[in-house]
Amino acid sequence: MENLNEIIFTIAQSLPGFLLAIVAHEAAHAYVALRFGDRTAQMAGRLTLNPAAHYDMWGTVLFPLLSAFTGFAIIGWAKPVPIDIRNFKQIKKGIFWVSFAGPLSNIILGTLSAFLVALVATQVSPAFGYYGVIIGMLKYSVFINFILAGFNLIPLPPLDGSKMLSTFLKGEALRKYEAFAAYTPMIFMGALLLSFVGIHTIGYLLAPAQWAGQWLIMSFYGLMAPI
Fold first, then answer.
1. In whole angstroms, what is the distance from residue 117 CA to residue 135 CA?
2. pLDDT digits over 7-16, tens only?
3. Interatomic CA distance for residues 146 and 3, integer angstroms
4. Crossing angle of helices 91-123/201-224, nearest 10°?
5. Among the options 6, 26, 172, 178, which is catalytic?
6. Does the global pTM surpass 0.85?
7. What is the 8-class DSSP label of residue 60?
8. Measured between alpha carbons, how far is 216 from 192 in angstroms, rounded to an integer?
C-alpha cells in the first residue's frame, strides 16, 4: 500500500507539468503551421491547449502509467498534429519552423519552470505547507520539458530534429537521409535493449538537456538568493 501511495503521489505531482509539456508541444506545431498557411491542424481541432484534443492512448495514458509503476516519473507523448506541407507559403522554411516550434515551446516552458523553482525557493518559506509539493511539481516540469525538447531534436526520422535537418539537404543526400527512416525503429529498439543491460544510450544523448535544466535552476537561484 505504501508503494501504491508513492506511485499515486508521483503521478499527481508529475501530471500538470507532463500534460502542459506535451500539449504545448503539439499546439505549437499547429500554431506555426497556421502561420505558414496550413490550416489542417486547426480544422482538426488541434490548435488548442485542451489535453483531450491531443491525447494518445499509448503515449499519454499507458506508457506514462507504465513508467510510474516502474519507479520513474511519468514520461510520454501526445498524438502528432496533422500537417500538410503543400499548403505552406514557403516549403522549406515552413518545415523547419513548424518542426522547431514543438521543442522550442518546451524550452520556453522549461526555462519558465526553472525561474519559478528559484522564485519559490528564495521567496517562499519552507514552512509553507505546500512548499515541497510546489517545488517538486516545478522541478518535474523543468525535467520533462527539457527532455522532450532534447529528444525531439535528435536528428533521427521521424523526430522534429530530422525534419529540421532535411531542410538543409538536397538531391541524393536528402534521398538517402529520408531512406534512413526505415532503420529508426531498429535504432530505438536497440537503444532500449541496451538500457536493460546498463548501457543507457538515450540517457547519454539526453544528458545535456538535463544539465541545461539544472543549470538554469541554479542560475536563477543565484540571481534571486539573498546576499
1. 6
2. 888 888 899 9
3. 28
4. 50
5. 26
6. yes
7. I
8. 29
Whole-angstrom distance, CA of residue 184 vs CA of residue 187:
5
Catalytic annotation on 172?
Answer: no
Contacts of 95 (CB under 8 A, 6+ apart): 85, 88, 163, 164, 166, 167
Q: What SS3 state is found at 37?
A: coil
Residue recorded with cell 535544466: 213
Contact 131, 120 (CB under 8 A): yes
If 0-12 CB within 10 Å is exposed, 13-18 middle and 19+ buried, where does residue 14 land?
buried
- H or E element, residue 184: helix 184-196
pLDDT class for 192, splitting at 50, 70, 90?
low
Residue 210 pLDDT level (bands cut at 50, 70, 90): confident
Amino acid at 83: I
